Every structure is written in C-alpha cells, then in structure tokens.
Amino acid sequence: MRITDAARRLDMTPRMLRYRESLGLLPSLRQTARRPAGRRPARTAEPAAAGLHRQFTDADLAAVALGVSLERRYDISPAALAFGIRVLADPRVRADVAEFGRRIGRIQPPPVRALDFEQERAQRLLRLGETAPVPGAARRLAPGLAGGAGR
Q1: Can you give the pTM of this predicted structure?
Q2: The domain that contains 54 carries what CATH number?
Q3: CB of 25 within 8 A of CB of 82?
Q4: Which domain holds residue 53?
Q5: 103-147, pLDDT tens digit by residue?
C-alpha cells in the first residue's frame, strides 16, 4: 500500500510517517520496495531519486505501530526512540552512553577484577581448610601451641 493509505491506517499523517522513516524507525526500504512492472532496477536506495514509491506491507505497519506504542508507554519522542535503537545497535555509542550513566550515578560501575581475584583466592584457602586433616598433624601442632609460642 502507498504512504497515504499506510498513514491513514496508522492514524498519522504521511509527513509524520516520512519523518519516522528519516529517523530510521521504519523497516529497511530494500525489504519493502516494489519495482513497477516494465521498469529497470534503480541504482540508488532513495525511492524519490529512482522514481519509485515505497510500498508498505502489514509487517511494516505492525513495526511502526509497535514503535508508536513504545513512545506512548515510555513518554518519549520518535527521536528518542531512534537514539535508543542506535545505542543498542552501535557498540561505540553504547559504551559512551554507559560511561555517562556511570558518571552521573545512574549505572553501577563494573566490578573491579582485582577484588574478584582476592575473593577467589580466599575461597580456595577456605576450601583447603575443609579437607580432611593430615594424620599426625594435630600432634605436631599441639606441642607448639601448648607452651612453646615464644621459643
């Protein structure tokens, strides 16, 4: 279906649907574009440059409707939703946003590995103490503990 029909079904204007497309909130054009019969394939991905019109499928409309419901549920703008998707898709952006979150105290810092090492070492030592005593070890320790601590 064409953009005017899709916009009508989504209860928004074609302009708002184009805005969402410019933000990357619509499925990729390659997945939904249809070539009119008798035309050669376009050399660019832009439908206007190729003289093609985007065709919307029911899956496209469902994806846009999900985006709109997320915006309403979390009270965010389409631009904020687009940025959230960018954070999830781009590891560099994700790392930068996580660092910012740690600096303002909204995200807990990752555990320090040195403390993990010390904790593992202490647990190993405790496990060693749980093993069965060596025969004769009590007799060897007892005289030293009894009265010869200052020898």
Answers
A1: 0.59
A2: 1.10.1660.10
A3: yes
A4: 3-36+45-89
A5: 999 988 876 666 677 788 888 888 877 765 656 655 555 555 555
**Exposed/middle/buried for 26, CB within 10 Å: 0-12, 13-18, 19+?**
buried
Do the beta carbons of residue 25 and residue 81 sit within 8 Å? Answer: yes
How many residues in total does the chain contain?
A: 151
51 within a domain of the structure (yes/no):
yes
End-to-end CA distance of the chain: 96
Is residue 41 classed as helix, strand or coil in its secondary structure? coil
Query: Looking at the domain assignment, is residue 149 inside a domain?
Result: no
Number of domains in the chain: 1
Contact between 34 and 57 (Cβ < 8 Å): no
Are the C-beta atoms of 51 and 38 separated by less than 8 Å?
no
Residue 10: which of 74, 67, 83 has the closest Cα?
67
Residue 84, domain member (yes or no): yes
